[in-house]
Write a structure and sequence with these properties.
Elements: H1 19-30, H2 42-54, H3 58-66, E1 76-77, H4 82-102, E2 110-111, H5 120-131, H6 135-148, H7 151-159, H8 164-171, H9 173-182, H10 186-209
Parallel strand pairs: 1-2
Amino acid sequence: LDGRAVKSPLGAELAVPGATLAEAIAREWRAQDARIEPGTMPLTQLAFTAIDRIGRERRAIVAGVAKYGETDLICYRASAPEDLVARQAAAWDPLLDWAAETLNARLNVTAGVLPVDQPEAALAALRGAADNLDDWRLTALVAVTQAAGSLVIGLALVSGFLDAPRAVQASQLDDAYQGEKWGEDNEARARLTALEREISEAETFLNLLT
C-alpha cells in the first residue's frame, strides 16, 4: 500500500497462505477509494482476524468455539407441530449422523429449551476437530459457528459437508418456519441477509485457501 507492506491493526504484516487468497485480498484493496471502508473488505478482515487474534489467543478461541457444542442448536427440537418436528429431523439428523460418523461426536437430542447434558467424549471430539484446524480455517469456523449458533454446522461447512446456502438454511430453519406461518418482518429479513453474507464470506475465504 503506497509502496509499503500492508499491516494488520496490531502491526503484523498482512501475509496469507497462497497466491489465490492474496490476489483476492489485493482486489479488495484496489477497489477502495481515498477512504478505506473495512466493511467492503471481508477477506481482509478475516485475514486480520487470523493473524492478530487467532494466532495470539488460539487456546481461548478453541475453548470458546467448542462451548457451542454444549448447547448446539441442532440438538434442541420442537415437540410440535408435526410439520416443524419433521422439518427439523430432515435437516438436522443428517448433521448429527455426520458428526457421529466422521468426528466420533454423538450428541444427545432433546425436545424443548432446557439444557441437555452432552457426553464428554463427544464434546472432546468436537473440540479436537476445531483444534486440528490451522489458524486460517479456524478463523472461518469461528465466523460460521457464531453466525449459525451451531458448532456442528460450522464444522460441517469447513469440512465441505455443507455449503453456505445449506448452512444458512439449517441454522435458520425455525425462523423460516415462523416466517412462513406468520409473515416475515423487515428486521428478520435484515438479520437473515447479514447472516447469509457472513457465512458466504467465510466459505469464500475457505475456498481461496485451497
